[in-house]
Write a structure and sequence with these properties.
Blueprint: E1 3-4, H1 6-22, H2 39-47, H3 53-56, H4 70-82, E2 91-93, E3 97-109, E4 112-118, E5 124-125, E6 128-130, H5 137-149, E7 151-152, E8 155-168, E9 171-183, E10 201-207, E11 232-237
InterPro entries: NUDIX_hydrolase-like_dom_sf (IPR015797), NUDIX_hydrolase_CS (IPR020084), NUDIX_hydrolase_dom (IPR000086)
Pfam families: NUDIX
GO molecular function, one term: hydrolase activity
Length: 244
């Protein structure tokens, strides 16, 4: 199931009304002021088949239905078709080295941070994933959260940009990460994130002051993650750390 906050649902109803009233406007132009990967369009691009269209856009004066109406389905199919597509992940591995561009979300609710636990990682980390060619970092974090937890959240300002260099198993890794602030809507129960298993991952809320006890990764960003103001640029090279 794909969940949309109330403002996102309202934007869909307004967009449908404009499209239905003219019959000619392009679906991607009826949402005035909303970026292509904004709260509404991004959610529908990535998961419109899971979204109960008729519940968001019921017929005038009629009840909502469990199945989409043909005109609604046509509208959303065109919306997806006309939306810009992204290419492969911006990540590669060479002879003894690797590079990755990642975007992640800082989602705080009642003093707790939304984190991801993965089978292959010892600890937790902010949800997100690799940025794709032709895609902005903000678009990537929105897409990843829709794919991972089925919730469409408005992407806020970047809080942190990190550059990490480290060695592992004889391979030199370099990773650039963009961390964006996102608000969890008050009209969505936070327990939803525990109901969406995703490819060996699970999601939960951890009190901010308990994050070190949960093996938060990367630990270098934690002192800077919740600072207010403009984005922080953090560079760390673990090769320079004292040997244990």
């Amino acid at each position: 199931m794909l969940y949309l906050s109330a403002p996102a649902l309202d934007s869909k109803v307004i967009a449908w009304s404009r499209y239905d009233g003219t019959g000619t406007a392009s679906p991607t132009t009826v949402e005035d002021g909303e970026p292509p990967y904004g709260t509404g369009i991004g959610a529908l691009r990535d998961g419109w088949r899971l979204f109960q269209v008729s519940r968001a856009c019921p017929p005038r004066g009629g009840p909502a239905r469990d199945e989409p109406f043909p005109k609604h389905q046509f509208f959303f199919e065109k919306l997806v078709a006309e939306s810009p597509s992204a290419g492969p992940d911006i990540a590669w591995w060479g002879s003894g080295n690797s590079y990755k561009l990642r975007a992640a979300g800082i989602v705080v609710h009642d003093g707790r941070l939304l984190v991801c636990y993965a089978d292959v990682v010892d600890g937790c980390f902010p949800p997100g994933g690799k940025v794709r060619f032709g895609e902005s970092a903000a678009a990537a974090v929105h897409r990843e959260l829709v794919e991972e937890i089925g919730v469409s959240l408005a992407v806020g300002d970047p809080a942190l940009i990190s550059e990490a260099v480290y060695e592992d198993g004889g391979v030199l890794h370099q990773e650039v990460g963009f961390y964006f602030r996102l608000d969890w809507p008050r009209d969505l129960p936070p327990g939803l994130v525990r109901q969406v298993p995703h490819e060996g991952e699970r999601f939960d809320w951890v009190p901010i002051d308990e994050l070190p006890d949960h093996g938060f990764k990367p630990p270098e960003i934690l002192p800077h993650l919740f600072r207010t103001g403009g984005p922080i640029h953090l560079v760390f090279d673990r090769r320079t750390y004292p040997s244990e």
